[in-house]
Amino acid sequence: MARELGAPRSPDARSTVVGVIGSPIRQSLSPLLHNAAFGALGVNWVSLAFEVVPGQGQVAAALGGMRSLGVAGLSVTMPHKAEVAALVDTCTEVAARLGSVNCIINEGGQLRGANTDGDGFLASLRRAAEFDPTGKRCLVVGAGGAARAVVYALAQAGAADVAVVNRTAPKAEDVAALAGSVGRAVPSADAAQIAQADLVVNATSVGMAGVGPGTASVADDWLVSPALFHAGQVVTDLIYAPRVTPWLEAARDSGATTVGGLGMLVHQAAAQITLWTGLVAPVDVMWQAATQAA
Question: Which of 34, 80, 81, 112 is the catalytic position?
Answer without folding.
Answer: 81
